[in-house]
Amino acid sequence: MIALETLPLPVGTSLVPGGVQHLSLRLERGGTLWVTGPAEAGKTALLDTIALRRPATGGMMTLLNHAAGPGLSARGRRQLQQRIGYIEAAPLFMDRLTLADNIALPLELNHLRRADVKRETDSIIRWFGLESHAQLLPHSLSQTMRMRAACARALITQPSIVLVDEPALTLCPVLRDHLLSTLRGLARNGTTTLLAMQHQPEGTDPDDQLLTLPRLPPSPEVSISSASGNDLAAPLILSPRDERLLP
Amino acid sequence: MTCLSRATDRPALWPLLLGLCLVTWLAGLALALPYGVDGAVQRWEGQVNSQIVIALPVIGKEAPALADSLPKALTATFPETHATLLPEQEVSRLLAAWSAPWEGPLPRILTLSYHGDITRLAAFVHSTAPEAIIVPPPPQLTKLTPLMTVLQQTARHVALMAGLAAALIVPALLYLAARTVALANRQQQAVLWRLGGKLSVLHRIFARRVALMAFLGSLAGIVLLLPSLGFITAALHPLLRLPPAEGSMSSFISPSLLPVRLWLAFSLMPVLMALAGWAMVHLVCARQGQQAS
To answer: Can you tell me where the transmembrane regions are (chain B) (predicted)?
Structure first.
């Protein structure tokens, strides 16, 4: 379960004056939420905050029935982070470990038995079609393979919350379909999922919820179209003749 | 955790190893210097000739009786002088070595060790035996004392400066090594933090590595220091009037020159360096963690 109450999130000043939006939402166990919006709308910031990588500066956040707002202890943060799988835009790996070791790392951190780690790792490597790359080092792999490995690493512990940033859903259609079907299976077992994209893709589950960012303040004068549309002033470096280059 | 141990980057820590080796060697030499100088000064002072010779010319009949009573009187008045009447054979041997064959009756000669005021001794002896000739030792100490004072002061100043330099250089070397290791493993730390792992596990691995390098560097410095001290002591043997050095290292380095507590300090130095390296890594990583959060 994820519950946010007036959580401040950064947003591009071209979208919301002041650069901050306050977000409240509630997502039950097993729910799937599509977070959509233009660039700089705060989608990744929302995922980062829920993944406890960005400190919450205000409001209230409850993750898995634990208060996770400001003042969360280091121990509490670690325990929650181990139950969250985050497939980020640019996944980081330990460069001296093979892909298989990197994927197995979350299980190692949970102090699972070596045999269990090997069994689970082999299983998820097969699931994501990484068998031929398992013993390679991450820096020798393509971006798609790294993203596959990131998916495998995020899902190996069958986390209670899965967060997926846009590149995992747009980089490769095959990977996207495979990932979405996997996430649906996990959601049936109670995993809560947040997926961030600029536009919700077609063919998604009708039960999925949708959140469009940015959340605009109540002032009627400010709207996305007015902020991002025709009122753009020409930068000073453009000559009057070049202004036709503007949208 | 073996997996994390394999995952960590191992930047070259040769500068730390070589730097600590050199610093330990220099600090060891500087630490040994005042002790060595003190030891040498004591040895020289011990070998300074403080023997006073009193010759009693054989004039008159009371001379033999005087030769028997004067040592007793001297011992009673100056208890630590150990006044001794030399036997006739010794006197004749001395005189034969001193000049041409002695003709005439042999004088009676007394020797005593005396460091006090020579006029007081002379007054006492002449009050008992006015004809006695007192031969004082050559004035060695008056020439040696200023030289030894300068030597001791210089040695202490050198040791102090070396200690201060080591106190600056060693933490700087350890800080650089700790920072190098932390920076080289920044990505590993970031991955572990994102996965909800304890960073202290990685920090312990870094600390172990830096401590090991610090220990090895300091140990190499000690290994270099021992023969250096041996060679210096061996070179000083003629000056210290010691028998020429032969054989093993223990005979090379005179135990009277360097005390046991100095050897203890030398043997503890690698352990102390390792502990300092271990602490420095934890300090640097903790600061890095604070800045990151």
So the answer is: 158-178, 210-240, 260-285
Name the CATH topology of A1-81+194-228.
Answer: Rossmann fold (3.40.50)
Residue position matching structure tokens 């070179």 = B235
Dihedral angle, C-alpha B283, B286, B290, B293, nearest 10 °:
160
- Sign of the CA dihedral with B286 first, then B287, B290, and B291 last: negative
Asked whether the beta carbons of B109 and B55 are under 8 A apart, the reply is yes
Q: How many residues does chain A have?
A: 247
Contact A95 B198 (CB under 8 A): no
A117 touches chain B (CB under 8 A): no
Could you state, in order of their start, the residue ranges of all structural domains in chain B? 2-46+141-292, 51-137
Q: Which of A225, A105, A28 is nearest to B2 (CA)?
A: A105
Cβ–Cβ contact A114 with B under 8 A: no
* A202 CB-near residues (< 8 Å, 6+ apart): none
CA A15 – CA B79 distance, rounded (Å): 106
Beta strands A20-27; A2-10: pairing state? antiparallel
User: Phi and psi at residue A27, in whole multiples of 5°?
Assistant: -130, 120
Measured distance CA(B256)–CA(B259) in Å, rounded: 7
- Read off the pLDDT of residues A71-125 as tens digits, 9 standing for 90 and up: 888 889 999 999 999 999 999 999 999 999 999 999 998 888 889 999 999 999 9
| Distance to chain A for B200, nearest Cα, Å | 12
The helices-and-strands tally (H runs, E runs) of chain A is 8, 9
- Residue numbers in A near B190 (CB within 8 A): 92
Using CA coordinates, name the residue in chain B closest to A80.
B196
List pLDDT tens digits, range A40-79: 889 999 999 999 998 888 888 999 988 887 888 888 999 9
Contact A97 B6 (CB under 8 A): yes
**Residues in contact with A147: Cβ distance below 8 Å, sequence separation at least 6, in sequence order:** A87, A91, A167, A168, A171, A172, A175
CA distance A65 to A223: 35
Q: ipTM > 0.85?
A: no
| Bond preceding residue B71 cis, omega within 30 of 0 | no
A108 touches chain B (CB under 8 A): yes
Structure tokens at A15: 């979208």
Strands B108-113 and B51-56: antiparallel
Tell me the three state secondary structure of residue A8.
strand
Q: What is the CATH number of domain B51-137?
A: 3.30.70
Contact B194 A53 (CB under 8 A): yes
Mutate to test the interface with B, among A81, A88, A94 (most CBs of B within 10 A): A94
Tell me the C-alpha to C-alpha distance, in Å, between residue B88 and each of B91, B103, B105, B108, B167: 5, 14, 10, 8, 64
